[in-house]
Design a protein that fits this description.
heterodimer; A: mainly beta; 6-stranded mixed beta sheet; 4-stranded antiparallel beta sheet; 52% strand; globular; B: mainly beta; 7-stranded mixed beta sheet; 11 strands; 50% strand
Amino acid sequence: AQSVTQPDIHITVSEGASLELRCNYSYGATPYLFWYVQSPGQGLQLLLKYFSGDTLVQGIKGFEAEFKRSQSSFNLRKPSVHWSDAAEYFCAVVPGNTPLVFGKGTRLSVIA
Amino acid sequence: DGGITQSPKYLFRKEGQNVTLSCEQNLNHDAMYWYRQDPGQGLRLIYYSQIVNDFQKGDIAEGYSVSREKKESFPLTVTSAQKNPTAFYLCASSAPVAGLKPEAFFGQGTRLTVV
């Protein structure tokens, strides 16, 4: 069955530092890939998505992600983190005509 | 503005009672979903519907029921058979995959607490 792994449960970074959140998926073909962000007590907001084409995709709020087929990965990056980026981040896949499958999330804390 | 509306935001239920969570969308999306979120567990799929009058069980459907009588609405009933219903519930919708827009749009969630 398709699955999504986010190896890091919690990450703490300093404001202004770079960020990389890891995501690996298990699926035979190339799925649709997504990153969502969730603030406490809120719904999920789409940061970016990958369907095909250029493997480096740009999203909102200065985030980008790179699809690497050989590693089955879709890691999220940001060159300089702001305090407002503190939230929970979810990687998700749509492996065909089925609902989104989510990873368990990575909680990001930002310190001054 | 188009979007997904979940109500209520907070809900309290006594043990043994059924309760219905509302989800309405005006995005003209065919597919709708219910996810349950618990700390450290990510989002787990309860039910989904890809077309009116049809729905499928997700990974954790036991103790829940849904209906899809209208395209815009996909209410979730948490029954007394659900052993641990306290959680954050998220409703989502998406356009068909054939439209190459399979990303889901989410409501703001309903926090259900059993007292």
